[in-house]
Amino acid sequence: MLLKPTSPEECTSTGCVQRFSGGDIAWSAGTGARVVVNGPVRSSWWDADGPAGYHGYPTTNTTYGLRNGGSKQLFERGAITASPATGAKRTTGSIHLSWGRTGFEGGYLGYPVTEERTGLHNGGAYQTFERGFIVWSPATGAHPSMGAIRERWWKSGLETGEFGYPTTDEVTGLRNGGSSQQYQHGTIIWSPGSGARALTGAIRAYWSATGGQNGALGYPVSEEFRQEDFVYQQFQGGTVYWSAATGAHSTTHGDIHNRYVALGGGAGQLGLPLTDKLPRAGGLVQQFTHGWLVWGPDTGTKIVGHPTYKVWSINPGEFGWPVRDTWTDSRGAHVAFQKLETIWNESTGELYSAEAVDASTVVFLGDSQLDLDSWGEQGARASGYPRQVVRSIGGIGYVSGSPAVGGSATDAVINDRILLPQGNPGLVVVTLGGNDARIFATDAAILSQANRLWDELRRKYPRSTILINGVLSRYDANHAQRRWVDGLLTREAAVRGWPRISMAGTASIAGANGNYLDDVHMNQTGHNKVAPLYASALKYVLGK
Q1: 3-class SS at 317?
Q2: 137 vs 316: CA distance, rounded Å
Q3: How far apart are CA 334 and CA 346, in angstroms?
Q4: Mean per-residue pLDDT for 19-45?
């Protein structure tokens, strides 16, 4: 291979070289004796002043038989690699090591086709290879840049653009054959189905936090779009929206997403999402700037305003699912649910039920004393109130609570967990206290809660007559506490100057002692016996 020597051994303080017809032998104490065979590698080495130049002494012999007829040799400061198509090029330092991570000339990048070029932004450098580049900066190190991801980076302005330098090598083997690469200011991710897309800022952080390409959103299928004061980006599984005021949230594919898009998306009537999609009572909900989208299994997706949703969400079963989008008229913002219709009145800040009321309407608020066709309802009809709205919840009182409304009647009315109709009914009747007697609530607690409820009813119905019923009872020892609470309430109503009817002992007076289902609940016969007495008292109190 080397044939005969053509010069004597030439030595310096660092080592020795002897030239032969077929190449050279170079020796140093640190590298030993190495053969540099005639060819493009040797020519490149001597063009750079041989062992006195940039490369220093060889640390391996020249290697031939590489891919596509190439050759290669390692030196103290890098390598020289040659192929018939690319010529001989040196690779050094971090760029050489990065090339090694890709498999050198046998890897994806192939052979180098240029020397290293310096003078990039912030002191960076790069080198071009057959199928890509390696880019280096002092802050990020050296990383390959190739294929579709590099093309996307190039479109953004390379290292001087929005992404800056790559901070990782390309990661392959992602879901569905995808790959990604991190940059100083973002991520570029690619898949066969979505192409190469950029991810930056808050949308990238949100996407990563929700599982990235393995999560519900999957791969991005668009770039970020800016619209008015927000940005959004589309993904295989939905869309992520961001604004400074709302942060980043997504709408993922399904009925809510489809309805939101049909309503104009972020620029539409609902504005931007304030939450992600959430499960609720067997359905799905999502909050937006100007309302909620509520999806029920049998009703589809409907718009519900914020105040109405707040009440509905506490106990959806009492309302059912919305069956129509919210609409507005002179009475306020309506929502039709499966079980009732509601009205939110912005001027009063109140949520009402939508039953129509007038001077012939009585609104009852009470406990199970209003079960069946009760003595109260019969008495009111006999007194000229044929239209009746009844809110009766077993177990509630001024103090006593029921899980059905999340607490006492007082708290439920104040917090709109019991909805009363909008308007000016002729009469409002409160029939509570029996359950407070049952739990032996203190007088102070009963009076405090009663006055809170009565104040709230007066605020809701400033022009209606509000009448306080006592507690229906018998004249036996078992009902002593019920009679006590009756007196407590009717005396307090008298102090306020409100109409009131004591029901203490009325069951006995009516001859209904034997008409009870249990110790406190009457059967229908008992109600029928008490009703005429109550009607007479009601007419008297109301001056009819």
Answers
A1: helix
A2: 58
A3: 11
A4: 93
Rounded to whole angstroms, how far apart are CA atoms 485 and 481? 6
- What pLDDT digit, counting tens, does each position of 98-121 carry? 999 999 999 999 999 999 999 999
Residue-averaged pLDDT of the chain = 95
- Single out the residue of 85, 41, 86 nearest to residue 62, CA to CA: 41
**How does pLDDT run across 325-369, given as a tens digit for each residue?**
999 999 999 999 999 999 998 888 889 999 999 999 999 999 999
Residues 287, 292, 296, 299: is their CA dihedral positive or negative?
negative
Dist. CA 297–CA 227, nearest whole Å: 33
CA distances from 403 to 314, 319, 408, 441 (A): 11, 15, 9, 18
pLDDT surpassing 80 at residue 1? no
Phi and psi at residue 537, in whole multiples of 5°?
A: -65, -40
Length of the chain, in residues: 544
In this structure, are residues 96 and 54 in contact, taking their beta carbons and an 8 Å threshold? no
Three-state SS at 521? coil
Instruction: Report the C-alpha gap between 382 and 534 in whole angstroms.
Output: 10
The per-residue pLDDT for 318 is 85
pLDDT value of position 315: 84
Measured CA to CA in angstroms, residue 277 lies from 210, 269, 289, 375 at distances of 13, 18, 14, 48
Other CB atoms within a 10 A radius of the CB of residue 178 amount to 19
| pLDDT (0 to 100) of residue 404 | 85
Q: What is the DSSP string of 268-296?
A: STT-SBSS--EEETTEEEEEETTEEEEEE
Angle, in degrees to the nearest 10, between helices 375-382 and 524-542: 40
* Three-class secondary structure of residue 388 per DSSP: strand
d(CA 205, CA 225): 17
